[in-house]
Write a structure and sequence with these properties.
- The chain has 13 helices and nine strands.
- The radius of gyration is 24 Å and the shape is globular.
- The chain has two domains: 213 residues, Orthogonal Bundle (Endonuclease III, domain 1), CATH 1.10.340; 114 residues, Nucleoside Triphosphate Pyrophosphohydrolase, CATH 3.90.79.10.
- By secondary structure, the chain is α+β, with helices and mostly antiparallel strands.
- The protein starts with 12 loop residues before the first helix and ends with a helix.
- The strands form three sheets. Strands 1, 5, 6, 7 and 8 form a five-stranded mixed sheet that branches. A two-stranded antiparallel sheet has the order 2-9. The protein has a two-stranded antiparallel sheet with strand order 3-4.
- α2 crosses α3.
- β7 and β8 form a beta hairpin.
Length: 353
Amino acid sequence: MTRSATPKADFPASAIFDWYDRHGRSLPWRHRWPDLAPAYHVWLSEIMLQQTVVATVIPYFLDFTRRWPDVCSLANASNEDVMAAWAGLGYYARARNLHRAARQVCDDHGGQFPSDVPGLRELPGIGPYTAGAIAAIAFGRQSTVIDGNIERVMARYFAISTPLPAAKVEIGQHYDAIRPSERPSDFPQALMDFANAVCTPKSPACLACPLAAGCAARAAGTPEAWPVKAPKKSKPERRGIAYVAIDKGGQAFMVTRPETGMLGGMLAFPSAGWTPADPAYDPAVPEAGVPFAANWKLAAEPVTHVFTHFSLSMDVMVARLPGAGMAESWGRVRPASLPTLMRKVWDAAQKTG
């Protein structure tokens, strides 16, 4: 059960700062107090880090800031260029909201990000955590910053028995109670690094933990039992098909996905069955949805891909045309600019004669 129904300010923040000063990560978007990181860098990195690990994000962050060194240069970029640069990071609604938010900051705020949580929440794609992170890390505000890593530290230290996600309110109350007045930009980043290196989901390093003396989960002897999580629901499975037509010059027939929905605004191969925006698909007659008449051949194996809320098995049909594709929908495939699912589809098509 929770150690205290009322949040208590008995958390040794100084120990976290000491640990961070010795072991904190050096990241391209990070500054150390009293220096504050540019809001553009904090915002960009936080959007990229949603559902994505740091090692994956770093090269994308460096590429974005090289191409678009400030928020207004990003705002003035074409949607196609932004989506292509984002390809491979997944969760493409993030990229659409990123571009919309950049335009809003540039057009409505003179290129300056709002410095408080309410103002930041007005921007597309920014929720409570991201707003709190930008306010604290870029502007030194005393805001609530709780990601999955910080949730784990708070839940263990205070033995919060309420299952997630219902526990988020209680965790936020504890965070606000123990948040120190000094080094407001460093505190959340120190907790994140500490959780990543010491208070890990599996096999936490309790013997080397500077918080061990006061940690309720360690005292209970079962730190991995926290945070408590509601039972996971099994992911539904979907079936779909993609149609890949390749002309004699190696160009492929492609379409732009609708702006809303899965892979919104991205270049993709015509498809059916796997989203509400696509035509229905009957695996018994895979050729029923081909975009045009040709000699279509079904690939030997489907492509599999896992999204946040469902798993997908996607058949692939391939047509190799003897002539050149004449319409503007034909073009050279750049795998690096494709979303991961379509990159898998392209790889399968390449193996199909």
